[in-house]
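Recall from the previous chapter that SMILES is a line notation for molecules. Here it describes zinc ion.
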Amino acid sequence: MGCDYCDIVDRNSRAQILYEDDTTLVVVKDLVLIPGQITILPRQHFTILELVPDEIVRKCSVLASKVSQAVFDSLEPQGTNILVHNGLGGGQKVPHFAIEIIPRREGDGLNLQWPPKEVTEEELEMVVQQLEPEVKKLGDLTQIKPEEPQQKKKEETKSEVKEQKENYLTKSLRRIP
Ligand SMILES: [Zn+2]
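With both inputs in hand, we obtain:
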């Protein structure tokens, strides 16, 4: 069975590609909650967030921030929802990790509310106890290794290219009705 997002990457889809580089794409899909919804996805097929290499997770996260800014600047919503459907239980329909940027306006009719309910003292305690051993590793797991000076120079050139591409992204977004 094919993957709808790999089809986008392969240009076998009506989705419009706004930006792409060697690892990631920013696209406007033809099936969305609301016009202006933008999707960020890795070029390679990873089913869920936890399988995406850290470097690409970072790239997708930074893109999510920049794309949300571009959505604010061009479509002028009152807010955005930034959403990941992670796994079947999380409502994931396409088995290819993606981040959705959804522009929001008061009274737009989208039902994306999940009112919080208060947990008991025991529930709170239990969650902390169960997670604590895993969470203790986070410091090591999230450490970014210092860059070599030579690599740094490369990064600078990369960011210049990125800047040009971001201008293109903003321009493309303005064309959305
Ligand atoms: Zn895929």
